[in-house]
Task: structure prediction
Amino acid sequence: MVLAGIIAFIVIAAYIIVIYKLPGFVASIALIGQVIGSIACITGFFGNIDSFTLTIPGIAGIILGIGMAVDANVIIYARIREEIGAGVSVRNSIKSGFSKAFSAIFDGNITTLIAAFVLMWLGSGTVKGFAYTLALGIVISMFTALVVSRMIVNALYAVGVRDPKFYGSAKERKAVDFLGKKKVFFAISIILILCGPAAMFANSHAGNKALNYSLEFSGGTSTTVTFNEDMDIKTIDSEVTPVVEEVTGDKNVQPTKVVGTNQVVIKTRSLNQSEREALQSALVEKFGVDDSTISTESISSTVSSEMRRDAIVAVIVATICMLLYIWFRFKDIRFASSAVLALLHDVLVVLAFYAIARVSVGNTFIACMLTIVGYSINATIVIFDRIRENLHSGSREKLAEIVNTSITQTLTRSIYTSFTTFVMVAVLYIMGVSSIREFAAPLMVGIICGAYSSVCIAGALWYVLRKKFAPKAK
Result:
């Protein structure tokens, strides 16, 4: 995990520096502060709070916090490049860039922070842990982006780094006609969403569960094995887990090493007597363990119906609160409605992926969905903020042109932020153990889907609602 994080950070930092030059270097320094600050707070100041334990949902909160920190810096420096491209001096471009980026960063972060507070209040278990790490990451990301980055950039300018070539310049691009393809985008989204119920029906018809519920949801069998030599968790995952998967015919295997011993506890789906005997024989044959040291027992689910209910209620209340905040800030319920619909779209598409790929649904499922909710709403608000700005600028463009222009202006931000976040999760997937991969795979789908919905769906939804409920608008 540590090595994967270091590799991902190096790739992201190098990419940002290549794209944004000097500001990219500043952003990398700010991101270092983001990571160090988050880990220091979790392990130091709040290390005695159970909710800050680094479980997978906690890691998900950190990843989302880093993603939002990258996004904030990208928004700022994209604005600075736009100002320089428009012929504004470097000094004024820096000042204007931070000023114009503030509303998008503020609204995106506050909306997600509201959701985090609701999850702290109503959630339980790992949901609460996710909320704590997310809230902490948001606060630190806003500080590093709006305060630390500003101080470093202004200091560099003060010592003589004033040539525009160090900051880059954005050229004005011709607006892409996204709205002209909105029917195609809507059709693609409907098909992707319907794949979920279709896959669930097919799974149920084949005699399986609609979704591949993990041990946390359905319980299973715990097998304790004493090996002849001490194995680390990576060796266990690469050598022992495949043997268990072959016998059980199921990839939902959770090995846990008992610290200070050669014992490993292997949790699987519920096994009948013949399957337990087959697993025991396979372990004896493959690893030469003493069969008298192998014991099995049935285990119950760790995610109770009460915990699931708390998670669902917390997400619903958080969504309502986000809707109300967006409505309040944008003075238009159509912005809020479109954002929530785009969010729902992303969740349903990822749910379809779970059903089709048969990825196990457990604690990682809850963490993944919560991460996608936070990521999706932030990406959508950035585009809506630009639409709001262009609407208030007195532009004589028609409404469709304003929407297309706004999406085009924020397109590079959408691509860069999605790419950097995707890289971070992809490295975790490549280098992580199976439990991490089960979290990373659907999250990568969610990142791609969130980028797609914010660019192709959210603005089009707002445009349709605006035209439908304000027919006299241009």
Notes: The mean pLDDT is 83. The radius of gyration is 24 Å. The CA atoms of residues 69 and 141 lie 5 Å apart.
